[in-house]
Design a protein that fits this description.
By secondary structure, the chain is of the alpha/beta class. It contains 13 helices and twelve strands.
């Protein structure tokens, strides 16, 4: 039986949340093993909080141009003498890690050519990430694999004093991918509609750019509340557990909210494919609606408002 196991999941936030089901399944399949997660610094604290890993390494993505850092990582991987690796990142970087471990490679679950438990090909690339990772682990001998599980992610929603009922709005997203953002003015129109239904909109986000988005929303809907810069990931999960609704772009906080069980409307553009990566309900009675326009500027406020109010009334 494998005693030293490595799991690789480097980023991003939404992908990390989607991978919590497989991570939990790996721990259940190897209850007595020493399991290490290789990740990056933004996700190290979350990984430790899961309770599924005995060690968390946060140096998983050195720049290829930084040869000393790459060498240190490879020496660390070799020195740990892992019996088995579950590569949940399955990108060219982690394929390269497998190649660099020659000639003494561990059993390897992933898409690397030559891996002992290889899962690759066009069929894999057409599957939703949760289905793909479920099949990957099946090939490696692990089943069943459940949905995302963030029961370990806790915060303090009460400290924000939001009146009930409330809805969470997530108008932001990665700064380098502005096409994934629905216009803030339309979030403002949605906030007005929610206030008309007696629901307080609370705007999530961080940083100056997302504070500006919140300001635009609050200018249109003065009864809304800005939580920008005030919430941890745990707070977002805790807020989502009590929310009447979540509406947001394809961004990490929305993935947290859906994994926490909140009803949600999630907005997609051409920049990401919901068939491959949309957050999915984690319980049978949880409504999650996906709306997609190739250009989110073409997504009318009325369409999103109808979908949001439909979830509230349904």
């Amino acid at each position: 039986m494998s005693r030293q196991i490595l799991v690789i999941k480097l980023s991003a936030l939404g992908d990390f949340i989607q991978a919590t089901g497989p991570m939990k399944a790996i721990r259940a399949a190897h209850p007595d093993a020493q399991i290490t997660l290789l990740t990056t610094r933004p996700y190290a604290a979350m990984a430790k909080a899961t309770g599924w890993f005995d060690a968390v390494w946060s140096d998983g993505r050195p720049e290829w141009s930084d040869l000393p850092a790459v060498a240190r990582l490879m020496m660390r991987l070799r020195g740990a003498s892992f019996d088995r690796v579950y590569d949940l990142q399955t990108q060219s970087r982690t394929v390269r890690y497998f190649q660099l471990l020659w000639p003494r490679r561990p059993l390897w679950s992933g898409n690397a050519p030559g891996a002992s438990h290889r899962y690759a090909g066009e069929a894999r690339d057409r599957l939703h990430i949760q289905d793909s990772q479920r099949e990957q682990l099946r090939i490696a001998g692990i089943a069943p694999v459940g949905p995302p599980d963030i029961g370990w992610m806790t915060g303090d929603a009460g400290r924000f004093g939001l009146p009930s009922p409330y809805a969470l709005l997530a108008p932001g997203g990665a700064p380098h991918r502005p096409a994934k953002r629905w216009p803030a003015e339309r979030f403002g129109a949605l906030a007005v509609a929610l206030l008309g239904q007696g629901i307080t909109p609370a705007v999530l986000g961080h940083g100056e750019g997302e504070a500006a988005l919140a300001a635009t929303i609050l200018a249109a809907a003065p009864g809304a509340v800005s939580l920008v810069g005030r919430t941890s990931f745990g707070d977002i999960a805790d807020l989502a557990r009590g929310a009447a609704l979540v509406v947001g772009n394809d961004t990490g906080p929305v993935h947290i909210a859906v994994a926490a069980g909140a009803p949600a409307v999630v907005l997609f553009s051409a920049d990401s494919n919901p068939d491959l990566s949309a957050p999915r309900a984690v319980r049978p009675d949880q409504p999650v609606t996906i709306l997609r326009e190739m250009d989110l500027c073409d997504l009318a406020a009325e369409r999103v408002t109808r979908a949001a109010l439909g979830l509230l009334s349904g």
